[in-house]
Design brief:
GO terms for molecular function: phosphorelay sensor kinase activity. It catalyses: ATP + protein L-histidine = ADP + protein N-phospho-L-histidine. By secondary structure, the chain is an alpha+beta fold. Helices cover 39% and strands 24% of the residues. The strands form five sheets. Strands 2-1-5-4-3 form a five-stranded antiparallel beta sheet.
Length: 653
């Protein structure tokens, strides 16, 4: 032992279950281990160096050998190493009855007295019944006679463990009467040893426990778990028990031992765990986002219904599979991202993915994917988690916002263009009109004859100005729903001829209008003023956008219940991608110069509304550089009457 260092020796001594006390030849305490501190209540630093007599109760201070310690040394030879009953004083003053094994080494200055101390083993109370059949209080005493047997060291160690174990322990014989139990077992049942000892275990209420006892007495290990109701107190306690047979030296089962654990806290923790798992499961299952977890091999270990539905597969179909196995080629890219997160340990957040490009089903079009490592408390990566958020609505909202922004910007541009054009268009007839009127005014002052052409030109400018103002008013009425019609039977062929005559009277030379008159009169139910407005606008556009001259062809024919009017020009034409916007408010084709071709972009917009209010339709066919043809389809007079009933003829007063 000389080579063992002092600190290591003290660690060994403190690890011993038995209390150890060492004194020198002068009976001073040299050392006590941790178990001795707990047994005697004295801190090591306080007791070391003091006389052993501080541990001796006052009534045992005087011995004929001189001291209690010398008395024990003298008795040591007679006891032949067996334990001796020793009274010692606890630090609180309480007298303790302890077992002591005394040993001695050295002489004089090097003399050492070593005491190994233990609590006296408690002999449990027992009823007469088990003792009558030759049973001893503890199973190890079956090989000995009665209670006179002195336990061996191994038996005392077992008893020490038995009494101080943190689990409930009990012994039963064969027949199965309860022979011994520790305080922990009695406390689990809410009873006392006196109430439990001698209990016949085959008279319990719990049949499962009785079955375990029977199987144990047949030489087998058994286990029990459940809510046990005590026979003696009625206390219900969640318990887990392990029963083992006890055999004598001949291998015969002479009883059994039970180890009982109170699992109340465990049950509570399990319930809390189940609650937390249920909450987590509910969250995963009902969350509005997709969630999945992968092991370190990037195989699915969990996926919620929301994410599983994007492939049309149930969640169970994913478990144990990889993304490429479930999604095919699109899953390879996502799998690479997962591997990057696994290798770097860094999360990948809000990766924007097109669901359509990934081949996903359902209503998802766009989604954000986030991936992150799942770590143990020690930092190890246990797997990966991913959250997939449907961003279709947000994406559409962003697209709609951008569309509205573009439309707003376009509306601002159109407004600015309109104001510029309107200013130009309104000033264009006003300037020559003002000059014509000034000329006429001077001639009148000088008494000169007036030129009829000058008056006609002034009137033309005035009509143009009136038309522009009326277009603005009509556009406002259309937007507010206030454009009213006054329908009546109207000869459309006569109305077209009238508009052509008026138009030719004020147009400049260079174009010719050819009207292909129908063979029979054609009538419609319409507002003559508004229909005249439509015809005049189409003719003006045909003339305006045919700057190189040529013939404007106008035709009218009845086709069943529909009257079809066409106005064709040999003008500049309209780009195909612009034709669908032609009847929108303030729209002007991009091949039209605002300086070369006047107008506010309201004429066709007003025409479309007037035609629609008459139950008809208007459209265009055109090719850039090859002219345009406008079509107006209106129901015949008979068709209108069939829908609305007869209309009385206007009375002539």
């Amino acid at each position: 032992m000389a080579h063992i260092e002092a600190d290591e020796f003290k660690q060994w001594m403190d690890a011993m279950a038995d209390a150890l006390l060492v004194c020198d030849g002068l009976e001073h305490v040299l050392y006590l281990n941790r178990a001795a501190e707990l047994l005697l209540g004295w801190p090591r630093e306080e007791l070391q160096g003091q006389s052993f007599s501080v541990l001796v109760p006052p009534r045992f201070q005087a011995w004929k050998e001189g001291s209690l310690l010398r008395h024990l040394l003298g008795k040591r030879l007679a006891s032949a190493g067996r334990s001796t009953l020793v009274p010692l004083r606890h630090r609180t003053g309480v007298e303790l009855a302890l077992e002591a094994v005394v040993s001695h080494t050295g002489e004089q200055a090097s003399e050492r007295v070593v005491l190994t101390l233990r609590h006296l083993p408690e002999v449990p109370d027992a009823t007469a019944e088990p003792l009558e059949v030759g049973l001893a209080p503890y199973p190890w005493q079956h090989a000995h006679q009665g209670l006179a047997h002195v336990p061996t060291l191994a038996e005392r160690l077992y008893q020490l463990i038995f009494e101080n174990a943190p689990l409930g322990l009990f012994h039963f014989g064969n027949p199965p009467f309860l022979i011994a139990c520790n305080d922990q077992f009695a406390g689990l049942l809410g009873s006392t040893r006196q109430q439990l000892l001698g209990l016949n275990l085959l008279t319990l209420r719990d049949t499962r426990v009785m079955d375990c006892i029977r199987v144990t007495l047949q030489g087998q290990h058994t286990r029990y778990e459940g809510n046990y109701v005590s026979t003696t107190t009625g206390k219900c306690t969640p318990l887990r028990a392990h029963f083992a047979p006890f055999r004598d030296e001949h291998g015969q089962v002479v009883g059994g031992v039970g180890i009982v654990e109170d699992i109340t806290a465990q049950r509570r923790m399990e319930q809390e765990r189940d609650t937390q798992l249920a909450l987590a499961s509910t969250l995963l299952r009902t969350a509005p986002v997709g969630m999945a977890f992968y092991d370190t091999r990037l195989r699915f270990v969990h996926i919620n219904d929301v994410l599983a539905s994007v492939t049309g597969q149930p969640p169970e179909a994913y478990i144990g599979h990889t993304l490429p196995e479930m999604l095919g080629p699109p899953g390879v890219l996502l799998d690479q991202f997962l591997r990057h997160v696994m290798e770097t340990g860094q999360p990948l957040e809000r990766l924007e993915v097109s669901a359509r490009e990934m081949g996903l089903l359902g209503t998802w079009e766009y989604c954000n994917v986030s991936m992150y490592p799942v770590r143990a408390p020690d930092g190890r990566i246990l797997g990966l988690g991913s959250v997939v958020e449907d961003t279709t609505g947000a994406k559409h909202a962003e697209q709609e916002r951008l569309r509205l922004l573009r439309e707003a910007q376009e509306a601002v541009r159109v407004r600015d263009d309109f104001l510029t054009i309107a200013s130009h268009e309104l000033k264009t007839p006003l300037t020559p009109l003002s000059l014509r009127l000034a000329t006429l005014e001077r001639k009148l002052e000088r008494g000169e004859p007036l030129d009829a052409s000058a008056l006609q030109q002034a009137r033309g400018h005035l009509m143009r100005l009136t038309t522009l103002i009326n277009d603005l008013l009509d556009s406002s009425r259309i937007e507010s729903g206030g454009l009213a019609l006054h329908p009546q039977p109207t000869r459309l062929d006569v109305l077209i001829e009238h508009v052509i005559r008026v138009t030719e009277a004020f147009r400049e030379a260079g174009n010719r209008i050819a009207f292909h008159v129908p063979v029979r009169p054609i009538e419609v139910m319409g507002d003559p003023y508004r229909l005249e407005q439509v015809i005049a606008n189409l003719l003006e556009n045909a003339l305006k956008y045919s700057p190189d001259g040529g013939t404007i062809h106008v035709s009218l024919e009845a086709r069943g219940e529909v009257v079809l009017m066409t106005v064709s020009d040999p003008g500049i034409g309209i780009p195909s991608d612009q034709q669908k916007h032609l009847f929108e408010r303030h729209f002007r084709a991009r091949n039209v110069s605002t300086h070369s071709y006047g107008g506010l972009g309201l004429g066709l917009y007003i025409c479309r509304d007037i035609v629609a209010r008459h139950g008809g339709s208007i459209w265009v066919e055109s090719e850039v550089g090859r002219g345009s043809t406008f079509y107006v389809a209106l129901p015949t007079l008979q068709a209108s009457r069939a829908l609305t009933g007869p209309t009385p003829e206007p009375q002539v007063h």
